[in-house]
Amino acid sequence: MKVKICCISSIEEARLAVQAGAGALGLVGPMPSGPGVISLEEIANIVQTIPGDQDTFLLTSKTTVEDVLEEHGLAKTSTIQIVDDTPNEILSILKTELPEVNLVQVVHVIDDASLSYALEKASFADMLLLDSGNPGLQVKELGGTGRTHNWSISRKIVEQSPVPVFLAGGLRAENVRQAIDRVHPYGLDLCSGVRTKGQLDPKKLETFFEAVEKST
């Protein structure tokens, strides 16, 4: 079970997450809302300190080829996580422009329509990540809400998706076993569930990874 710790804000947090067992780190670029936003320059500095076998995710809310390429050119992560709805042709061009970079499309699971949306995006992305935001709000929620969503829909997406699927949204030590049992995702993604007052909490990290190990 691959675990991605998101909202990494410093070199110290990155090292703490890796030591705890994280297989991937999420670094949040400019966003309309949500926690963990740092500058692209800070992301690049953190990425330079990460061991080569660790995946680094740039979270971007940009939806044009030019903007995504510009952000990635500064951040230089191994993976790009697009958190907003992105036209299929844009995803296709990005795959051509960045063949060595994994492309992750976030699907905000809201209702049954999220299933067909996810399966459509799976044809253009390397992975999907199921989260609990709402891009339809006036100020878009694009992640980091700390809320769970309808795991029954997520389970259907996992069962039918041709690409690996991460589960995000309100995960913590107390519910991760249930999440794994109900959804069977490829990986887990969390931010607030291992933090105290916004800071990465070593004890919560330890407890979460212990719960994951017992569940797999």
Structural domain tally: 1
> Strands across the major sheet, in which order?
1-2-3-4-5-6-7-8
Q: What global shape is seen?
A: globular
Note the total helix count: 8
- The total strand number stands at 10
CATH superfamily: Aldolase class I
Q: How is the CATH topology named?
A: TIM Barrel
Report the top-level CATH class.
Alpha Beta
Structure notes:
The mean pLDDT is 92. The protein has an eight-stranded parallel beta barrel, surrounded by five helices. Strands 9-10 form a two-stranded antiparallel ribbon. The chain has helices at 11-20, 40-47, 65-75, 88-97, 113-121, 151-160, 176-183, 202-215, and strands spanning 2-5, 24-28, 55-60, 79-82, 102-108, 127-131, 165-167, 187-190, 195-196, 199-200. Strand 4 (79-82), helix 4 and strand 5 (102-108) form a beta-alpha-beta unit. The protein has a single domain (2-215), classed as Alpha-Beta Barrel (TIM Barrel). With 216 residues, it is of the alpha/beta class. It is built from eight helices and ten strands. Helix content is 37%, strand content 19%.
